[in-house]
Design a protein that fits this description.
With 203 residues, the protein is mainly β. It contains no helices and 16 strands.
């Protein structure tokens, strides 16, 4: 069973030396950056600034800006490569479509390793997206400016029985494998979510 530390369905913030941990399990630790001096992360990590995805190897000293999101990849990552975004500077784009479970969703995978796939999901105002079922559910992280709500209910239960929670910047959603989760954009602008999927050689 996956161990969750400092996290519920939508994440609970807890204090760290320079960053705030908003979610942690055996695969990733997600940090919201606070003001502090340049520092390094012990593991490979992805960081998000202005909705742009970057990748850095562990033990790389870097100055971080307040408000950035850092996803520490706690498992060893092999074969990092661009998909349809230049995350690794100067390297070829291996463009391909997301899995068929995302059919109809505006999801662009931008970066992947053998173990992890990372992309940006966009949801139009007033639109609703059902999170596709998966043996290892993906993580969805609300990026800056997102105003949405997540509704979770048991499979087969009426929609009105769902539990509703606000879903805004730096909130983390992991849909339980045995439940249905929908995200509705309640704002006036496009909601932007970081999607982190797991699987492949590292599992």
């Amino acid at each position: 069973m996956t161990k969750l530390v400092c996290a519920t369905l939508l994440g609970v913030t807890c204090a760290a030396a320079q960053d705030h941990t908003v979610y942690e399990d055996s695969r990733v630790r997600i940090l919201e950056v606070k003001a502090g001096p340049p520092h390094r992360h012990a593991t490979d990590y992805v960081w998000i600034a202005d909705s742009v995805i970057h990748f850095s190897r562990g033990d790389t000293n870097r100055a971080e800006r307040a408000g950035e999101l850092v996803i520490e990849l706690l498992q060893r990552q092999t074969q990092p490569k661009n998909v349809c975004g230049e995350v690794l500077a100067g390297e070829y784009l291996h463009c391909h479509e997301p899995g068929s479970e995302w059919l109809g969703a505006n999801l662009q995978i931008q970066f992947e390793t053998d173990q992890t796939h990372i992309g940006i999901l966009q949801i139009a105002p007033n639109a609703t997206l059902a999170i596709p079922p998966a043996d290892i559910p993906p993580l969805l992280i609300a990026l800056e400016g997102t105003e949405a709500e997540a509704v979770t209910r048991a499979n087969g239960a009426p929609a009105a029985s769902g539990v509703r929670r606000p879903f805004t910047a730096a909130n983390v959603l992991r849909s339980p494998a045995d439940q249905i989760t929908e995200i509705r954009n309640t704002g006036k602008a496009v909601a932007r979510l970081l999607v982190v999927e797991f699987g492949g050689a590292g599992e």
